[in-house]
Amino acid sequence: MQHAVRDILFFADTSTPDSSPVKFAIELARRHGATLTFLNVTETADARLLRSRVGQDLVHMTAEDTRRRLHDMETVARSELPSDRVLQVVLDGEVGWHTIIRHVLRQPPDLVILGADGARSTNVFGTVTHHLFQKCPVPVWSIPSALHDFPKRALIALQPGETSSDERLLSRELLRLAVILTAGTGIELHVGHAWDLWGEQMIASKYGEEGTRSLLALQQTFAHESMEELLAEARCKELLADVHYVKGDPSVAIPALAADIGAGMMFLGSAARRGLEGFFIGSVAESILERMACSALVIKRPGFVSPVRVD
């Protein structure tokens, strides 16, 4: 993706024509003038039941339901978009997320959108979403059905890092793509950076409150300087509504910041080395997702190669 969003792929498996994920995908395609392709996967599991007469009836019923729902989604989309910019793809595959990624590798879209498929009592983002967040080579936007309004405000979670570090490269890519994806959409872009003082409790026990306070101030200054350097490199500061600095664990502070500013979506970067490790330490990105109430758009590090292969 270099200059604009031209091709959006929507995974239609868990959504209905009147659901928020579908409406958001249509609205984004409309605002960008993009093509919107509705994709579904007919899973062809090798099970003895499915080879029986009853199983074949079940397969047929499932396929009919898929076609009906896709047709209904297309009808809704064509009321908002030119007919030639609304497409449909139905694929066969044993595992849905794996089949989607193989399709993306063959015909890369600019963005994949899907409804969040998790249980709200535990994690809004479920199995398919997490696999795509981890392994899909293009940006993935997962949208909870409970959201009703197209996002007016988005939060970009950044860890500036040192000059030329992996964190810096990923943060620049995150800014670049966030600007492209929201261009012309009216979405207000905010940046959030959670910082802390490593070993703060140990420092306090040795140097006391006054000594700790001075080191906290110094660490906060470093955070501001690193962010200003990153934004200068990315040349996008004038496109941002605000830059927020919050002290604390990013897995807690970033979701809290998103709630405080009323963000309808969050941009996260992922190095995708293990799960959603991203540019945060350990499993912090996973913890952020567990605490989020808004939609999430995950972008991979530059040079990312999906572990899924095309034969």
Secondary-structure map:
Blueprint: E1 7-11, H1 20-32, E2 35-43, H2 48-51, H3 53-78, E3 86-93, H4 96-106, E4 111-115, H5 127-135, E5 140-143, E6 153-157, H6 166-182, E7 188-195, H7 200-234, E8 242-247, H8 250-261, E9 265-270, H9 284-291, E10 295-300
Parallel strand pairs: 1-2, 1-4, 2-3, 4-5, 6-7, 6-9, 7-8, 9-10
Antiparallel strand pairs: 5-10
Helix pairs in contact: 4-5, 6-7, 8-9
What does this structure look like?
The protein is an alpha/beta fold and 311 residues long. The chain contains nine helices and ten strands. Strands 3-2-1-4-5-10-9-6-7-8 form a ten-stranded mixed sheet, with helices on both faces. It is elongated and about 75 Å long. Mean pLDDT is 86; it is low at 274-282.
